[in-house]
Amino acid sequence: MKSVLIIEDDPVIAEVQRDYLEAGGFRTDIAATGDAGLKMALNGSYDLILLDLMLPNMDGFEICRQVREVLNVPILIVSAKKEEIDKIRGFGLGADDYMIKPFSLGELVARVKAHLARYERLVGSGEPKPDEIRLRGIRIDKLSRRVFVNEAEVAFTSKEYDLLLFLLMHPNRVFSKDELFLKLWGYDSLGDIATVTVHISKLREKIEADPSRPQYIETIWGVGYRFNL
């Protein structure tokens, strides 16, 4: 049975969310404060986290940031904060979804199921090798620096490979162009951040079924890029 952690300080909302999720076949736990929620998230083995933003002791943004540093579980923000800047900040910190209160509880359960199914769609059977990364049709052999898309080998330049590997190893986290340029090229490199856009475009041409409608590398407008699980 999949488990969901609800971090919500309103007991009425938390109980209703729990009732609907448990009726949908999930096991749930509730944390009523930010610090308690963070501790439970990091120490538990939850498959998904429902996260309010306005919490006692620690806000949801900080929880999202700290959880995403060490875990790749889906994080769904559920909040009354509806300003675009709050959504952008949430996605930038690694949230997978953002629902504005009030919302349909049936839709909440449906989104939880959809995100969990998305996380489970890994390619291949059995456990991947320690030096191999498998994710939704993409397989990287880190020892040989070879990349396979739907089991067909695809040629990548050295920097394209490095960029793809970096994004794959940090799924669902949004990186700005500046961050990617710094991490992959460094301050002392010739050129500018425009090269990031060029390399993202080349990656999409090689791994996406339709580069104009990318499913892997998503553009988060005004923020940067995110590799979706």
From TrEMBL:
One of its GO terms (molecular function) is transcription cis-regulatory region binding. Residues 130-229 form the OmpR/PhoB-type domain. InterPro entries: CheY-like_superfamily, OmpR/PhoB-type_DNA-bd, Sig_transdc_resp-reg_C-effctor, Sig_transdc_resp-reg_receiver, WalR-like, WH-like_DNA-bd_sf. It is found in: Cytoplasm. GO terms for biological process: regulation of DNA-templated transcription. Gene3D superfamilies: 3.40.50.2300, 6.10.250.690, Winged helix-like DNA-binding domain superfamily/Winged helix DNA-binding domain. The modification 4-aspartylphosphate is found at D52. It comes from Paenibacillus ginsengarvi. PROSITE patterns: OMPR_PHOB, RESPONSE_REGULATORY. The keyword Repressor does not apply. This is DNA-binding response regulator. Pfam families: Response_reg (PF00072), Trans_reg_C (PF00486). Keywords: DNA-binding, Phosphoprotein, Transcription, Transcription regulation, Two-component regulatory system. Residues 3-116 form the Response regulatory domain. Residues 130-229 bind DNA. GO terms for cellular component: cytosol; protein-DNA complex.
